[in-house]
Design a protein that fits this description.
The chain has 15 helices and 12 strands. The strands form 2 sheets. It has a 6-stranded parallel beta sheet, sandwiched between helices. The protein has a 6-stranded parallel beta sheet with strand order 9-8-7-10-11-12, sandwiched between helices.
Length: about 350
Amino acid sequence: MAVLTPSLLMIGPGLIVRGGVRQISSRLCSTNEFKLLKGRYLPTSVGENSIIKLVTYLFSIARFICICLLMSYDIVYIHSSASSSFFRKSIFVLLSKAFMLKVILHIHPTHFKNFLENSTRRSRFILSILRKCDGIVVLTKEMKHFLSFYLGGQKVFVLPNPIIVRQYDHPEDIPRQRLLVTYLGAILPEKGVFDLVKAFQRVIKRQPTAKLSIFGNKQLDLLRTIIQEASLQNHIEVNAWLSKRDLIKQIKTTGLLVLPSYSEGIPSILLEAMASKTPILTTKVGGIPEILTEASATFSDPGDIEDLAGKILFCLDHPNLLAQKAAIAYDSVLQYDLKTIAAKWLCIILEVYDNEHSSR
């Protein structure tokens, strides 16, 4: 008996928009599995300008309705974050069900937990949207356990973020800058980047030749002001987000990658560092303990400036130990290679489709 392959319409941010969700969407769209599903991608946002984002969103709703009226798709696969992103994507869940289509909702951040628990007035609506979905995809086992508590027997799947490991192979003849510390990510308080600046002020008292390079978006001007007021501009540089090629080069040459977040899913930047055998200093929050251990990374306590400074100094003083941990991290990242994750992703889609299809 022939196996029926469903057709897929994927909805998410524009593939030229910066951010982790965009990166994961783009990687899934590049796979043979997406081609097998005759996948089509519908972007709902482009750029940072609020007016352009609103116009793009409204236009994507109109396009979605036209697609549903004129074409035939079996499953709508929706990428979502928390807060306003979830409410925007909820429209597509409701429209999909109105057209009697199967829906899989891919929830990316682990702080969705806080979003649901703290939205007392809106929690009923949030849960009603989740219950309308035929499958929910999350990044971590912790998130699966959390949502399963609210959703009972509804299907919740764990799918870690994928990475193309071969892109990050580190040639042995490229030397690392041992005293170069790098942060790559959004410039936001919850990412711990402001804590990192305060910690580095302590680091340079012991290691005056150490340098911190920060690359990201969001609150760049605020961070630059803080650095200038603390007279740290000779030790810390702040730059806009890097191109993919420059990002890979930065990861491969830095002596230490630091991500002192308060909340995370499974950060792509950590997978990228693991794939390039780059030493990592991070926190045990969200899904990070599911991909890294004490054997493969160094950990600090979120929000503890003194601890963060001490751990940075420890890392800078023990390059051989860090190299050993980085090698262990590399071995463990292979399970997150795009080919492996894409195969699991296809199995999730087929399971949702087969269950619903066989019940007709």
